[in-house]
Write a structure and sequence with these properties.
The protein is mainly alpha-helical. The protein has a domain at 273-306. Helix content is 70%, strand content 3%. It has 18 helices and two strands. It has helices at 15-33, 37-53, 58-65, 82-108, 114-138, 156-165, 172-196, 203-221, 231-244, 249-258, 266-286, 295-306, 311-335, 350-378, 390-399, 404-414, 418-446, 452-467; strands spanning 68-73, 76-81. Strand 1 (68-73) and strand 2 (76-81) form a beta hairpin. It starts with 14 loop residues before the first helix and ends with a helix.
């Protein structure tokens, strides 16, 4: 039986429509393939929000996020604002992805080896403590003291964006340190939110959340692998935390940490199962079986493909684009719109909050990260990766001062009153911009390419050492 390759397009395709779609899709695909595209989208969304909130159409900006969202089932009725849906609903998916990243890193990533995790752990701890201490020193005894958690957070999308702008001159160890630090930083921010920025805990609702967790664990123990099966327990956990007074973002993290981290089939199992299914598929094609008979081997191939990688990896890969290119820009659009005309910096504590946030992020982050890394290396707790200098760590500390997403999120929890919240957001936006520019300039100076003559000498010396 001669083998004929299938056509490149399905038989029902209307070719003019396909051509038009590709013409528009190619630029979009090229844009989304660029690293740190999420940071670019965040910047655009934040800029739109700021312009909109300070334009003649500012009322429409605020009206949009106060639109009521309603849905009900039988006697149950739910009604909240669109802003609530974004911050308390969509952001739970963001925190779920954070939980997936933490779970994967703890199992097989940089955090799985205590020796490799020591340096980023020390850097993250220093990068959280120093900003909080600086903020509290500026706001000691003032009305804005509750915002000490705001400058503790790092925005990984913007930070990675700055590193990407510096090009291939950035050592791989610097990128690894920044990513590991950001993950540990996220863990610290989640702990801070759970302990210090949650309302009084209701035992009844907390029991409901724990019941949802138990149901998710039971499904995992029964071998249920379909992600949709965990949506109802996830809703129960979310509702329980929301009613208990613990911020529902914790529900997302908890479910992420419960996600299975080991593959069922794995790479070798995928090959064996696929080869067997292809054998059955080939036999049925050669004996002219109907299309319906081909479904069984195709389903076996689909199952092997799905289970070739762990669920934690599969879910992270599936959700990360939606979070990076959808949820986070929407969050920025909903929360970065600070109406500057309504800010009263003469109000009690306003200046202190603004200064505390800016100093905490711009100065506290690099000082804390550098000091913690230096101490941990000197004490023998951690080791400097090969090719990394304290200048590189200083660069990581500077870009870690970009606190956008998580910092604004914590500010919304720390300051329920609009006036002080607007000041805190302004501090976060200003500090993130300053930290990004300083980090980019410092990085360009630190990572300057050597002159061609000097580069030739280094290359010649390296070649000679290789020969010997």
């Amino acid at each position: 039986m001669s083998q004929v390759l299938p056509p490149e397009v399905p038989p029902e395709l209307w070719r003019p429509a396909r051509s038009m779609m590709q013409r528009f899709a190619r630029p979009i695909e090229a844009f989304l393939s660029i690293q740190a595209a999420s940071g670019i989208l965040l910047l655009i969304a934040a800029g739109i929000a700021l312009l909109w909130a300070n334009s003649p159409w500012r009322e429409s900006y605020h009206a949009l996020w106060h639109l009521p969202v309603r849905f009900g089932l039988a006697t149950f009725q739910f009604e909240q604002s669109l802003h609530f849906v974004v911050n308390e609903g969509l952001m739970v998916i963001f925190f779920f992805v954070v939980g997936l990243e933490v779970r994967r890193e703890l199992y097989e990533g940089e955090l799985s080896d205590p020796r490799r995790a020591a340096l980023p752990a020390a850097a993250a701890l220093g990068g959280m403590l120093a900003p909080a201490i600086i903020y509290l020193a500026v706001n000691a005894g003032g009305p804005g003291h509750s915002g000490w958690g705001v400058p503790m957070a790092t925005d990984i999308a913007f930070a990675v964006g700055v590193i990407v702008l510096l090009g291939k001159r950035v050592p791989a160890a610097v990128r690894v340190l920044l990513l590991a630090l950001a993950i540990i930083d996220d863990i610290g921010a989640i702990v801070v939110i759970a302990i210090f920025y949650s309302a009084g805990v209701s035992g009844y609702w907390l029991l409901l959340a724990l019941a949802g967790v138990f149901l998710a664990v039971a499904l995992r123990g029964l071998g249920v692998r379909q992600p949709w099966a965990y949506v109802p327990p996830g809703i129960v956990v979310w509702a329980g935390f929301l009613g208990s007074g613990v911020h529902p973002s914790i529900a997302g993290v908890m479910l992420g940490l419960l996600t299975p981290v080991r593959a069922w089939f794995g790479a070798s199992g995928f090959l064996i199962a696929t080869e067997r299914a292809l054998g059955r598929f080939r036999a049925r094609v050669e004996t002219n079986h109907g299309h319906h008979d081909l479904l069984e081997p195709l389903e076996a191939i689909a199952k092997a493909r799905r289970e070739a990688v762990p669920p934690v990896v599969r879910l992270e890969a599936a959700l990360h684009p939606w979070v990076a290119y959808g949820i986070l820009p929407i969050f920025a659009l909903a929360n970065a719109g600070v109406d500057l005309s309504e800010l009263d910096l003469s109000a009690a504590g306003a200046n202190s909050v603004l200064i505390g946030v800016i100093l905490g992020l711009v100065l506290g982050k690099p000082i804390g990260i550098l000091a913690a890394c230096f101490l941990s290396v000197k004490l023998g707790i951690a080791a400097m990766p090969r090719g990394m200098t304290y200048g590189h760590i200083g660069l990581v500390g500077l870009v870690a001062g970009i606190g956008f997403t998580m910092a604004i999120f914590i500010a919304s929890l720390a300051f329920p009153e609009p006036g002080m919240l607007g000041v805190a957001k302004l501090g976060v936006l200003g500090a993130s911009g300053i930290a990004g520019v300083i980090g980019l300039l410092f990085g360009r100076a630190l990572l300057q390419e050597p002159p061609r003559e000097l580069a030739g000498i280094h290359a010649h010396e390296a070649e000679r050492s290789t020969e010997h």
